[in-house]
Structure formats: C-alpha cells, structure tokens
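Sanity check. The docking grid for zinc ion depends on where the pocket ends up, so I'm generating a full predicted complex first rather than guessing from homology. Inputs follow.
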Amino acid sequence: MHVPSPLPLSKRQPTGRTTNEEVRQQNLASVLQLVHVDGPQSRSAIGTATGLNRSTVTGLVTELTELGLAVETSTAPTGRVGRPSLGVAADDAVAALSVRAEPDAVTVSLVGLAGTVHSRVRHDLAGAPSPRRFAQITSSLVDGMRADIDRHYRLVGAGVAIPGLVDEAGTVLVAPPLRWKREHIASRLSSALGMPVAAANDASVGAMAEARFGMGRGIENMLYMAGSTTGIGGGLIFDGTLLRGTSGFAGELGHAVVNPGGTKCTCGRRGCLEAELNPHRVLDLLGRRNLDEDELDIELGVVRNPAVIAEVARQVDVLSIALTNFVNAFAPEVVVLSGYLGVLLATSRERLSNAVRVEPVGADGRSVRLERAHMRSHLMQIAPAELAFAPLLADPAARAPRRAGH
Ligand SMILES: [Zn+2]
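Predicted complex below; grid placement will be based on this.
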C-alpha cells in the first residue's frame, strides 16, 4: 500500500510509486539502516557497503538529512591519517521509547536512532503489575520525560519487551512471570501513550539486537540464550532472520527438559531448563534480593562460600547439558549467552566451551563459538526500541517523524 508522505521531499512523486521510486525508497532505507546499525560512515564507505555510486549516495544522504533522519558528522573514520572527511550519522534526536515489563519493575528508556540512551527511568514494584497498572506506570514515567522529549526529540513510538509469548499483533498470549494471559498490550499501551506501540518477547528482541549490534554481527546462524530471574528465553537467527516457527514462538528453549523428575516448572512439567537454572537460588545463598548482571559478576568473582560455589557448579552442569543438545540440534556458528547465562559463562568458560565443542552429528568437524552477549546490561535498554524503529528503517520517507513547526 502506498502511504503518501507529508514531507516536502516526496511531494513530486506520482500517485502510484514507479519502479524507480521504489528503488529509491529501498536505497534510502539501506543507507539509513547502515548508519543506524554500523554508526557514522563516510560517503565513500556508504558507497562501498551499498554498491551505489557517489552521486546517488550524495542524493540519498541529502534526502535523509532533509527528512531529519541523518546528520553530518566530522568524526567518521577515514582510514587515512590526516584526512578528516565529513561523515553521515543517524540523527539521535529521532528517538523511541524502550519499555521493559518485569515482575519487579517497569523500565522506560529513551533511545536515539544512533543508539544513545538519552535517559532511563525505573519504577520498582513489590509484585507483578496487572496490564492496566503496567500501562498506568509506563504512562506516568513517560509523562515525567515529556518536557525533555518535546524540547529535544522526535518520537517514532515505543517498543515493549515482555517475558512471555507475544504474537505479531502485540498481543501477549501468556506471560507467566507477569501472570498475564490474552492481553492486547500493544494496543492498550498505544492508547495510554498516544503513539504507535509494538511488543515482542524479550528474548526475541534481545536476539535481534545482539545479531544487529553485538556478537552476532556478520553471523548467519546464531543461537542466543538469555537468562534472568523471570526465566530463560532464546532466539535462533537463521540465515540472518529470527526464526519464528510455525506458531511464531520458536526459541522457547527455557522449557527444554534437562532433568526429568527435577524441579517443578511454571509450565507444569518437571526439570525444565529454567526451573533447574535460576539466579534466585544463587541470590538466596548470597543473601541478596536482586543484583544486576554486572553486580552479580563481581559477587561471583570473589565468592568463597562453598554452598554458592557448589550451586553455581550445578547450574553450569545443567547449562552444559542444554547447550550440548541445542548445538547438536541447530548447529549454529556461534552461541551467545546473555544476562544470567553470561554470568555463568564468565565463571566457567572452559567447562561450557567443552560442552559446545561437541561436533554436530554429521558435520565436518567445524567448531562452534561460545560468546558472552556483547552489550551486557545495555542490550535490553536499547533492544526494545528496535521494534519501534523498524517501520521507519523500512520506509524512511513515509515514516520520518515531523519536526516541530512542520
Ligand atoms: Zn517448563
């Protein structure tokens, strides 16, 4: 469907898009995606990456600048000493809200198109919020940011990461940590905030961001697994695309059974990965209520308590079993462990590396890399914003947010 752009640059296009116009829009999207993902680029680097000639690149950069989506920068790497050249960057004044719904907190970050986290606010909770309460809290957090947003930024919308199963329409089918079921959270929040809202599973969102900005860059096949107090989720990136499966929920790896007859899981079965491997057990032994990934790294780096060491070792063994199975099943090039699983990797890299070194059945002995998520705590601050940026990145001219006075 053709959506006429309200912006001046597109006014001369005919009522239906010509093939040339479609190509131009596609090129515009490619250049914006490039600077969004890879950071500031010189025009010649853009030309090399996109295969477009110099004058085409110049025209596209001009259009992106006039749309308010890109800015000139003097910091682009030139690759040649003493030759500073003007570069092109995504405009960080174009921003999206990145929202996380968790049982113990609602967090809202304001994220720029160039990846800067402009601000972040967190509302701690004593218990899981109802969907209505979640929308109210998010709305009041955003109200607190509103003056700053109106003065400095142009918002494209909000993206929400949910610890549960979410369909493409942004409906939560089930989110056990939040005790939500059949909840149209994207439309509820969209009404509350008065802007477009997209929602998705938190691990899927993390997997896409890690593939785009982190350890998965340039990798075709990646298995991403994230652990937290709310459970374990995962995402499979195959041929550069997040695998959704027929139901749309591929990558629910937390419910792989690793210990039949083990601990009862929220899903009703026993011995699921996320029931056997949970930071709560370690936190309880440490006598701490909640620690973020960086804090837990430090605690476990110096821990001398034998009970904690034994529990960590047990969980590492459980993770080894799961990784061996997943690597055999999916044969990824790299396995990226995020959140709590990244903490476990840091404590026991050799043990876990040995587990994934198992050669996939029938494969020609290629090795699988095991990596910790690149962006650590930062990942889930910026990742949900990608949901909100997606329409803009796909069609910049049609989706560019208007500037004040336009
Ligand atoms: Zn389960």
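Relevant for the grid: The CA atoms of residues 29 and 294 lie 36 Å apart.
Also worth noting: Residues 1-14 have pLDDT under 50 and may be disordered.
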